[in-house]
Design brief:
This protein is mainly beta and 421 residues long. The protein has three helices and 22 strands.
Length: 421
């Protein structure tokens, strides 16, 4: 509880500013919701034991009668002797009829990934169509605390069509155009697109069919940066088959989130094909099988497989086990994971997990890793929850990892106070 009080004390200037907006408003149709989190963690991510403390205040106010929405998200983090304070969100949105205007700092997710935008946006909603224009300056992208863009602006259109075509009953489409310039002066313009449809295959089986197509096109380089296509055929209430194709060739100078991750271990183009079968059994047993093929423009290509099994016992205990194997050139990695989750009482829950991983290399040392994890959760009240967690990973030819964490979370919601996760 002391950590929660510390969060409130550090965030007091920002919360006072928020209250100044709230006081003059009627609260007949108003809703206040959010959460306060405080926690600490000990780990060896940087090669030696290190202590991290954090506090988060996420508070939102929505007055439907006035067409007003106000919110703020404040983060305080201290790792060893380094302190960090972030205003992740502080915004005000005013709606009138089918249009709305938002100003301030907000978190956005689009073709660039997740970032914080200092600026504003204007939206118009009409029937099944949404049109938005936005612009400003990014101050944080994908959790990296540096300024990557001097300016950013863009727009997007969301459409929802009801059709009576064969194979397609409903079609959702998304189109966006985003342009920004970074500090060195380089600029990039991305055209994003997305299509999602639902339908039936027709007689005699009448299987449900879901199609997905999305991606980004780099206009300045005149090439596709990402492309993801997926087809899901729902055979019945218990099973479905899906096929997906994913291609990625990120911009090395200004990569997105997936591009940052991909560039950390490989270069050039990567393509992945997956074929999966999912089965949901009436006796609380679910299982799936997946095969995948990986193609690298530079570096080794290969193939892999995954099998997962999930079931629930009659007393409510949940089990999950998963096996994964992949071979890329002269390297093979096999992983087996088991997890068990059970309620100790109506207000206590315990989750235990274990993992074994074997890495085989033709040239170099083979590595075997064994890990365990445990998490205990206590519901102190309908809105207050406390948890303890521990993780330990031991390797034969790599650094051992450990993590100990404690968290206290208070959540409040005028809309559904009894339903919080």
């Amino acid at each position: 509880m002391k950590l929660l009080l510390l969060v409130l004390a550090r965030c007091r200037p920002y919360l006072s500013l928020l209250l100044l907006f709230l006081l003059p408003l009627t609260v007949v149709e108003a809703e206040l919701y959010g959460r306060l989190d405080a926690g600490m963690q000990v780990d060896n991510q940087h090669g030696k034991p290190s202590l991290t403390q954090h506090g988060l205040a996420d508070i939102h106010f929505n007055d439907r009668q006035q067409g007003l929405r106000i919110g703020t998200t404040l983060l305080i983090r201290q790792r060893d002797k380094e302190n960090e304070q972030q205003v992740q969100q502080l915004y005000l949105e005013k709606s009138h009829g089918n249009s709305s205007l938002l100003i301030g700092r907000t978190e956005r997710y689009d073709s660039l990934g997740l970032y914080t935008l200092d600026g504003g946006s204007f939206k118009i909603r009409r029937d099944d169509t949404l049109f938005e224009l936005y612009g400003g300056k990014t101050s944080r992208v994908e959790g990296i605390n540096n300024t990557l863009a001097e300016w950013l602006y863009g727009g997007r259109v969301l459409l929802n069509h009801k059709l009576n075509w064969t194979l397609v009953n409903r079609l959702e489409s998304r189109f966006s155009l985003t342009s920004y310039q970074d500090q060195p002066g380089d600029s990039a313009t991305r055209f994003g697109f997305g299509l999602r449809s639902d339908g039936e295959t027709g007689a005699p089986h009448h299987d449900r069919l879901h199609l997905l197509l999305q991606g980004n096109y780099l206009i300045n380089e005149q090439r596709l940066e990402t492309l993801h296509a997926r087809v899901i055929t729902v055979l019945d209430k218990q099973s479905d088959i899906s096929f997906s194709y994913q291609r990625q060739q990120p911009d090395e100078q200004q990569p997105t989130l997936s591009g940052r991750f991909y560039n950390s271990y490989s270069r050039g183009e990567q393509s992945v094909m997956r074929l999966s079968y999912n089965h949901r059994h009436l006796n609380n047993i679910d299982w799936s099988l997946t095969g995948r093929k990986v193609f690298h423009a530079y570096g080794a290509s290969g193939a892999g497989a995954n099998a997962a099994l999930r079931w629930r016992q009659t007393d409510g205990v949940r089990w999950q086990t998963e096996g994964d194997w992949i071979a890329l050139g002269d390297e093979q990695i096999g992983t087996l994971y088991v997890r068990r989750s059970a309620n100790l009482s109506p207000k206590q829950r315990l989750t235990l997990g274990g993992v074994v991983q074997q890495q085989l290399q033709l040239y170099g040392d083979n590595n075997r890793g064994v890990g365990i994890e445990a998490k205990w959760e206590q519901l102190l009240s309908s809105e207050l929850r406390f948890s303890l967690s521990a993780k330990r990973m031991k390797n034969t030819h790599a650094c051992d990892d450990f993590q100990l964490a404690a968290r206290l979370s208070y959540r409040f919601d005028d809309r559904k106070r009894s339903l919080w996760q």
